[in-house]
Design goal:
BirA Bifunctional Protein, domain 2; Rossmann fold; eight-stranded mixed sheet; five-stranded mixed sheet; 16 strands; binds adenosine-5'-triphosphate; binds magnesium ion
Length: about 425
C-alpha cells in the first residue's frame, strides 16, 4: 500500500466493478438521448455566487456542504455541488434559449462535490446523470422527465423504487402557504438553527430528517390545501399523464427537497433497500431559477439521478447487470517470432472490432493461460515456432478446451464464427 489513500468520503472505481458504473450511466442517459436531449458538459467549478444564488443561501448545500475556495487570482469559486445551476448558466451564456426552439433539452453526466458526513450512500465526491428541459411550462414536459427516469431504472432491472410526487405551488400561492407554515412552526420546540430556517426557508423544515423534529410536524398545514387553481390544474395534468403512461407514483405532501429554486412539480425516486440514504434521484420544476441568476423568465424542469446510490440499489435488489466480458480473445505467444506474429494478429482482430488482449511481459505458457482465463476471454490464440512454420495458430476454446489449428489469414473469420 502506498502512503496515500483516497480522501475521506471518496472512493475509487476500479475494474471490474467500474464497468457497472459505466453501464448505469449509459442506461440512465439512453432514454434521454432517445428523447431529444443533447449532451452538455460544464466545468467542475463555477463562481461561488452562482450556487449561492442559484441553489439558495439557506440550503445545506450552500451553507455547509460546498467546497468553496479562492484562487491565486482572487476568484471565488466552488466545486460544483449539483448540476442545474451550471447547466442553466451555460445555456443562458450561449443564448441557447434564443434559438426559437424551446424547450432546450439537455443531459449531463459527471462528478459532484459536497462536504457531507460520509456514510454508506453519502459521499463527498459522487456522480450524477441529470436532465434539464429549459424554457417551457407544460405538464407533459414534467411527465416526460419522470417517465424517462422510470424507464431508465426499469431498464437496469430495478423494481423496488417508488416515485414520490408533490407540487410546491408558484409565486401566487406559495407565499400564502409559507406564512401559514411559519405560524405553525413558530409554535414548536425547535433549536436555534431550525428557528432561523423557519424565518428564511420554512418549507425546508418539512424536510428535516431528525425524529425530534419529524414528530412535531404532524398537523402542519399541507401545501396541497393552499395550491391556487392554476397550480392544482397543472399538477392534476402531470398526474394524469403519468397514470396514462402506466407510471405509478405516491402523493407526498411533505416532499419539499433541499433546493430553494423548486416550484410546482417536485419528485423524488426512493429505494427501500438503502436505509436512510434512500433517495436515488430527484428533481422538479424551477420556474424562477433563471431570473434568480440574472436571466429572463424561463420556466424549466429537470432531475438528477445519483449513480452511486443507483449502483447500491442494484446490489440491494441483487440485480447483476449483463455486462459482456471486456476481452473476447487472448493471444498467447510462445517465443520471439510468435510474439511478433501474434501481436500483429491482435491488431488485426481489434481493427475487426473483436475485443482482444495479449500476454505481455514474456510470460510462460502456464501463466499466460491463467491470464487468458482471468480475462474472461472465450478464445485463446496460441502459437509457437512449429505452428508458425506451418502457417497456422492454435485457436483454443477456453470453455470446452477444444483446440483447432487455423491458417493465419483465416483467424478473423474463424474467431468471428466461433464467437457467434
Ligand atoms: P439527500 O436528501 O439524500 O441528501 P439530496 O436531496 O441532497 O439527497 P439531490 O441534491 O437531489 O440530493 O441530488 C440528486 C441525487 O444525487 C440524490 O437523489 C442522490 O442519489 C445523489 N446524491 C446527492 N448527494 C449525494 C452524496 N453526498 N453522495 C452520493 N449521492 C448523492
Ligand atoms: Mg443532501
Amino acid at each position: 500500500m502506498s502512503t496515500f489513500q483516497a480522501p475521506k468520503g471518496t472512493y475509487d472505481l476500479l475494474p471490474p466493478h467500474s464497468a457497472t458504473y459505466l453501464t448505469v450511466r449509459e442506461a440512465i442517459s439512453a432514454p434521454l438521448r432517445n428523447s431529444g436531449y443533447g449532451y452538455i458538459e460544464t466545468p467542475g467549478f463555477e463562481n461561488v455566487e452562482l450556487f449561492a444564488r442559484g441553489v439558495g443561501e439557506s440550503t445545506d448545500i450552500v451553507t455547509k456542504e460546498m467546497y468553496a475556495f479562492e484562487t491565486k487570482g482572487g476568484d471565488r469559486l466552488a466545486l460544483r455541488p449539483e448540476g442545474t445551476a451550471s447547466v442553466l448558466r451555460a445555456a443562458l451564456e450561449a443564448n441557447l434559449h434564443k434559438g426559437g426552439n424551446l424547450p432546450v433539452k439537455l443531459w449531463y453526466s459527471g462528478s459532484y462535490y459536497r462536504y457531507e458526513r460520509p456514510q454508506k450512500g453519502r459521499y463527498r465526491h459522487f456522480s450524477q446523470v441529470g436532465a434539464e428541459a429549459i424554457g417551457a411550462e407544460d405538464p407533459a414536459l414534467d411527465a416526460e422527465l419522470i417517465i424517462l427516469a422510470d424507464q431508465a431504472y426499469r431498464s437496469l432491472g430495478l423494481r423496488n423504487f417508488r416515485i414520490l410526487l408533490n407540487s410546491l405551488g408558484d409565486k401566487e400561492c406559495r407565499p400564502v402557504y409559507r406564512a401559514a407554515l411559519q405560524d405553525f412552526l413558530r409554535g414548536l420546540d425547535l433549536d436555534d438553527d431550525t428557528r432561523r430556517r423557519v424565518d428564511i426557508n420554512p418549507l425546508r423544515v418539512l424536510d428535516d430528517k431528525r425524529e425530534s423534529v419529524r414528530k412535531q410536524l404532524t398537523g402542519a398545514p399541507a401545501l396541497g390545501d393552499y395550491l391556487c387553481e392554476a397550480c392544482k390544474a397543472y399538477h392534476e395534468q402531470v398526474r394524469e399523464l403519468l397514470t396514462a403512461a402506466g407510471v405509478a407514483f405516491e402523493n407526498d405532501a411533505n416532499l419539499v427537497r433541499g433546493l430553494d429554486y423548486y416550484t410546482r412539480t417536485t419528485f423524488e425516486f426512493v429505494h427501500d433497500g438503502l436505509g436512510s440514504q434512500s433517495a436515488v434521484g430527484g428533481g422538479g420544476r424551477y420556474d424562477g431559477l433563471s431570473e434568480m441568476i440574472g436571466g429572463p423568465a424561463l420556466p424549466s424542469v429537470g432531475w438528477a439521478l445519483g449513480v452511486d446510490r443507483t449502483v447500491l440499489a442494484l446490489e440491494a435488489e441483487g440485480v447483476t447487470l449483463d455486462i459482456p466480458a471486456a476481452t473476447a480473445v487472448y493471444a498467447v505467444p510462445l517465443g520471439e517470432e510468435a510474439r511478433r506474429v501474434l501481436f500483429a494478429q491482435v491488431t488485426v482482430l481489434r481493427k475487426a472490432g473483436i475485443a482482444t488482449d495479449f500476454a505481455f511481459g514474456g510470460k510462460g505458457l502456464k501463466n499466460a493461460m491463467k491470464s487468458a482465463n482471468r480475462s474472461g476471454a472465450r478464445l485463446a490464440l496460441v502459437a509457437g515456432e512449429r505452428d508458425l512454420a506451418e502457417g497456422v495458430v492454435q485457436l483454443k476454446n477456453l470453455e470446452s478446451g477444444e483446440q483447432t489449428a487455423v491458417p493465419l489469414d483465416a483467424v478473423v473469420d474463424e474467431v468471428r464464427r466461433t464467437l457467434g
